[in-house]
Design a protein that fits this description.
The chain has 16 helices and 19 strands. It is globular and about 55 Å long. Strand 15, helix 12 and strand 16 form a beta-alpha-beta unit. It has two domains: 198 residues, Aconitase, domain 3, CATH 3.30.499.10; 172 residues, Aconitase, domain 3 (2-Layer Sandwich). 32% of the residues lie in helices and 16% in strands. The protein binds 3-isopropylmalic acid and iron/sulfur cluster (SF4). One of its GO terms (molecular function) is metal ion binding. Its cofactor is [4Fe-4S] cluster. It is an enzyme of class 4 (lyase). InterPro entries: 3-IsopropMal_deHydase_lsu, Acnase/IPM_dHydase_lsu_aba_1/3, Acoase/IPM_deHydtase_lsu_aba, Aconitase_4Fe-4S_BS, Aconitase_4Fe-4S_dom, IPM_dehydratase_rel_enz, IPMI_cat.
Length: 475
């Protein structure tokens, strides 16, 4: 029997194995940020230990960083965490992309962009969206703070081998349907727990035709479907993305690496513990209306009614979600008002995402009463966007153009949504209070968020594209 890429990478990294116990895995790359690392370093100090491989550890500042006046950090917890990260990186000789660095940005944006993330690796970070790096054909997953300490000290981790899930997306996507809609559709169809205990391998024509940015968007939200990791086997798209990046292998070494990476692709006769298949043409632009990422529907449909959902539990969670969101059963998605728009986060803040949003916004104006933010995922994305004039397109339309960071994705920095107000957000979580106390988050793609900014409500992006600007019917 052949092996899947998941098993191939896993088997290569086993340092120690015993029957019916977790495996001890070697970790190739450890990303750290200010929120989940301070206690881990404290633990090392208390035990008199050092960092085993500072050269395989890379740090950035992202969650707590203000996106304007970024050196003025009023919040004491935020300031302390950022200062601790700086001190820890200095003391343990770890590379840090701090606020002065051109490499700074959201950990899951900068790692790939710098060529640190590579196929075949095991990658961890004290952050659940580490699954993003799976887009490169790596096993990448989030870990807790005590595990961060273990990896810092030993460069290894005890892990139970997960089951494998093959998720094939065949056919092609309709106009206006993006990678974000693909993953929101998957989670709404199979639920927020379908991936529990599995590593997902995403495959099929739709995935093969995606850019690296799009694959990252899909893998990023694997965790929202319950899986700790999701990956895409590497191919020419992966290799050409990596060629010439700061930490990519150079010259002959790159060619050698490609030969090795290509050998990791799943064998034709690989067996999986579970397989799912969907058709790309069934997917529409999606909007979340509830308080978990599975609670979303096509933009041209309505919020479900209690009568339409099956179990008593799901009726209960529907009602409680709608109460929090201030919405009604059966309401049309396009009738949901929007007061805030956030284009950013590790799901959708790369150059391609900003281009998509700018395409919609160009020459238009943000609707009165809407506050709209664009927050590039990294300083490099910001610079590249500015070089092609995207910042002008956004600011002329009335968007605010910010410095990189996690920003409004979660309320750990000054960018928050006020209670009771609705935000069209390109981020990945719509939990209660996520963007601020009482804030009402709607997860969407960058182009759908941009369109919502122009109309002060959700509109079907397909109607906007068709006419160049909006169809009359949309208004
Ligand atoms: C703060 C951090 C630990 C957290 C995570 O693990 O994902 C954050 O990034 C998030 O998106 O909720
Ligand atoms: S952008 Fe959001 S999801 Fe991503 S790491 Fe930051 S807080 Fe977490």
């Amino acid at each position: 029997m052949g092996k899947s890429i998941i098993e191939k990478i896993w088997d290569r990294h086993i340092v120690y194995k015993e029957d019916s116990k977790p495996d001890l895995l070697y970790i190739d790359l450890h990303y750290i940020h200010e929120v989940t690392s301070p206690q881990a370093f404290e633990g090392l100090r208390l035990k008199g230990r050092s960092v085993r491989r500072p050269d395989k550890t890379f740090a950035t500042m992202d969650h707590n960083v203000p996106t304007i006046n970024r050196y003025l950090i009023h919040d004491e917890v935020a300031r302390t965490q950022l200062e601790a990260l700086k001190k820890n990186c200095d003391e343990f000789s770890i590379s840090l992309a701090d606020l002065d660095s051109p490499d700074q940005g959201i950990v899951h944006v900068i790692g790939p962009e710098l060529g640190l993330t590579k196929p075949g690796m095991t990658i961890v970070c004290g952050d659940s969206h580490t699954s993003t790096h799976g887009a490169f054909g790596a096993i990448a997953f989030g870990i807790g703070t005590s595990e961060v300490e273990h990896v810092l000290a030993t460069q290894t981790l005890w892990q139970t081998k997960p089951k494998t899930l093959k998720l094939e997306i065949n056919g092609s996507l309709g106009r206006g349907v993006t990678a974000k809609d693909v993953i929101l559709y998957i989670i709404s169809k199979y639920g927020v727990n379908f991936g529990t205990g599995y590593i997902i391998e995403y495959c099929g024509d739709v995935i093969r035709n995606m850019s690296m940015e799009e694959r990252m968007t899909v893998c990023n939200m694997s965790i929202e479907g319950g899986a700790r990791a999701g990956l895409v086997a590497p191919d020419e798209t992966t290799y050409s993305y990596l060629l010439g990046r700061k930490y990519s292998p150079k010259g002959d070494d790159f060619e050698k690496a490609v030969t090795d990476w290509s050998s990791l692709v799943s064998d034709d006769d690989a067996e999986y513990d579970h397989c799912l298949e969907i058709d790309g043409s069934d997917i529409s632009p999606m909007v979340s209306w509830g308080t978990n990422p599975g609670m979303c529907s096509p933009v041209d449909s309505s919020i479900p009614t209690a009568g339409e959902v099956k179990t008593e539990d799901s009726k209960k969670s529907l009602r409680s979600a709608l109460q929090y969101m201030g919405l009604e059963e059966g309401m049309k998605i396009t009738d949901i008002p929007v007061q805030h728009v956030f284009i950013g986060s590790c799901t959708n803040s790369r150059l391609e995402d900003l281009r998509q949003a700018a395409d919609v916004v160009k020459g238009q104006k943000v609707s009165t009463g809407v506050r709209a933010l664009v927050v590039p995922g990294s300083q490099r994305v910001k610079l590249a966007a500015e070089e092609e004039g995207l910042d002008k397109i956004f600011t002329e339309a009335g968007f605010e153009w910010r410095e990189s960071g996690c920003s409004m994705c979660l309320s750990m920095n000054p960018d928050v949504v006020p209670p009771g107000e609705h935000c069209a957000s390109t981020s990945n979580r719509n939990f209660e209070g996520r963007q601020g106390t009482g804030a009402r988050t709607h997860l969407v793609s960058p182009s759908m968020a941009a369109a919502a900014a122009l109309f002060g409500k959700f509109v079907d992006i397909r109607q906007i594209n068709a006419a160049g600007i909006a169809d009359e019917a949309v208004k």
